[in-house]
Design a protein that fits this description.
three-stranded antiparallel beta sheet, two-stranded antiparallel ribbon, alpha+beta
Length: 133
């Protein structure tokens, strides 16, 4: 991680938060995490936002499928896709379960905490919690 490299010898007791959970902490995501690590074995291939990004794509694909169904199997309009995203409820992803309000904002959020550990320092998962819904 570039932050740790740039910090040189000042990495002790560094912390960061991630506005998403850690997929490795979700037993339901174990097979997806394992498949990713097998396909992309370098440690640098897996970052704090890898699985949140995966979930974003998953949410969109799910919503597009539902919008196509709602459009009778035809290409949906932009608004139909937006409506389908906003109607998402209880969709289980790798880092959480997703639902959105009428504004498209998540009804709940997960926050993960990480700390620098070791020499050379690496980010180590500490804890996470969810709020809302």
């Amino acid at each position: 991680d570039q932050c740790l490299k740039d910090s040189g010898s000042n990495t002790a007791n560094m912390y960061f938060t991630n506005a998403a959970g850690d997929a490795a902490q979700n037993p339901d995501a174990a097979s997806i995490v394992a498949a990713f690590k097998q396909a992309y074995p370098k440690a640098s291939d897996l970052g704090a936002y890898t699985f949140p990004a995966y979930d974003c794509a998953f949410i969109l694909v799910d919503a597009i499928k539902r919008a196509i169904d709602a459009a009778g199997g035809k290409v949906p309009t932009r608004q139909q896709v937006i409506d389908a995203v906003q109607a998402t409820s209880g969709l289980k992803g790798t880092v959480g379960t997703y639902a959105f309000d009428a504004n498209g904002d998540p009804k709940s959020a997960t926050m993960a905490f990480w700390a620098s550990k070791g020499t050379p320092a690496v980010w180590t998962f500490q804890s996470q919690f969810s709020v809302g819904q």
